[in-house]
Amino acid sequence: MRDKFKIELACDERQWERHSVTMLCEARDEADERIGFSSVEGVHGLETVPCDRILLYIYLVPRTLPTEDAIGGYPPFPLEVKVWHGTNLIRTETYPVNQWGGASIEITAGKP
Questions:
Q1: Domains (ranges, CATH) in the chain?
Q2: What is the pTM for the complete model shown?
């Protein structure tokens, strides 16, 4: 039986205020055929149609720059990504996000 995938993003609340967030996600079946597509902007979660695997893109784009121009004073911040399949947490990863340039993250995941 196919379940939905659910993606959750988490980071320091101050960073959400400075970055635009977009998620694009293809839902695929066992034959690797695309059976659905989901996209969200400005939110920190996404849910797919029931499927066997996903191809997910997460984009964080800074809307403002740090208050000072000393790059060394603004190290990357951690973005935690959790991927659920049905009620099973199948993946938790932390990605560094450049405060000046944002991030572009690609994730593939399949049912457990």
A1: 5-110 (2.60.60)
A2: 0.90
